[in-house]
């Protein structure tokens, strides 16, 4: 990474361009030197850390779900719902678009990094995956999907049933690399992250009421959680033991929901009813997961709360450096997402002031805070598993 890259990371792009085209005044030079010193110190620390880098608590991370955790699988599909074009990825290392639906990294990337597994989680469909990248985990997630297989079904995305099929192929490939016995150990000690549900309510209930003809909200919540239950059991049968399941975000605060539901554009506020529904769903989920865990011997299945950190950011934006929480950074921020947030769309000047990147997806800054919250609240619960069973075996300890 070059010095300019580091510099870009810490300053919003627009401001930077202004800065760089200016003659280097004393202040600018000073800033550049300061960043240089900071960067060198950082390099030094990270090199020192590498020598004593703690053994990862989990050898791998496996991810299932929707666009909140799709690190690029949709790039390889015939679907319109893609994030592999600028400005998506403008703040990702190297400023590359990867298919992630944000300006930078997603929660699975940050978690993998916090857990010392790796810096980013690649999509399973990437044909150029190295063996190391494969055995340390991938994402099977697909933007637009949901627990309900009709969600996104017309959009050509990967439904959950298909994500399980890809996982089976993954297992065969890992067995080919490390052998059957090691593969089994690897899968059982990997951390599994599942994040979906928002599209089910958005596509099938609130905005396009397909499922509302069959279910009331409570019935649809139960229907989805029953699907989730079956999905968890399938992963368990395939060898997964440690899973973190994300609840719903405050759906009524997504900029797109506000746009669809609020009557006056001058009075943009969260749709309380949808937030209440999400809270009820989360409460049901938090009480369902321990029941599922008790039915699956030696499993650890924890609830990952994303509602609380998000509503905290929405209610107290200044604590997080945000000035705008009701519209995305891309375009007007009211409707644009996927193909409508593209290289012709203007972006906000300072993305660090925005909770949302587009009208549906949080910005990298928001994802980082959610990740830190989960690191504190959910990861320790997953690790409690250590006490109850055999010591953790990690692949790399075994093979040197
Ligand atoms: C939802 O539907 C079920 C039956 O399908 C019914 O028992 C329940 O009372 C309904 N709940 C609400 C809030 O209408
Ligand atoms: C598991 O072990 C850790 C450290 O050895 C301890 O702090 C924690 O309380 C234990 N958890 C349970 C559930 O026993």
From TrEMBL:
Enzyme Commission designation: 3.1.1.3
InterPro entries listed in its UniProt record: GDSL (IPR001087), GDSL_lipolytic_enzyme (IPR050592), SGNH_hydro_sf (IPR036514), SGNH_plant_lipase-like (IPR035669)
Residues passing through the membrane, by range: 20-45
UniProt keyword terms in alphabetical order: Hydrolase, Membrane, Transmembrane, Transmembrane helix
Signal peptide: none
Xref: CDD domains: SGNH_plant_lipase_like (cd01837)
EC class (word): hydrolase
Protein name: Putative triacylglycerol lipase
